[in-house]
Amino acid sequence: MKLRQVKPKDLLKALLKAGFVIKRKKGSHFFLEKDLIGEKRDTSISIHNEPLPKGTLKAIIKQSGLAEEDLIKILK
């Protein structure tokens, strides 16, 4: 399945469902973290009304350590 455009608020909700926690917030930026066995994943999301650019979305997915398919399932 193809990754669709995602609004930052929807991505934030999906990452929270995937086990991330909000580490801190500064302005419109949320900083998230997730402790995995032997490693820690950190990422940040800027909350605004426009969908995330494709490159930004892919970078956040890579930082989170999630597979695109898993994120697509969570976003449904």
UniProtKB/TrEMBL annotation:
The keyword Membrane does not apply. Coiled coil: none annotated. Pfam families: HicA_toxin. One of its GO terms (molecular function) is hydrolase activity. It comes from the Bacteria. Keywords: Endonuclease, Hydrolase, Nuclease, RNA-binding, Stress response, Toxin-antitoxin system. The keyword Nuclease applies. InterPro entries: HicA_mRNA_interferase, HicA_sf. Belongs to the HicA mRNA interferase family. This is Addiction module toxin, HicA family. It comes from Candidatus Woesebacteria bacterium RIFCSPHIGHO2_01_FULL_39_28. The lineage of its organism: Bacteria, Candidatus Woeseibacteriota.
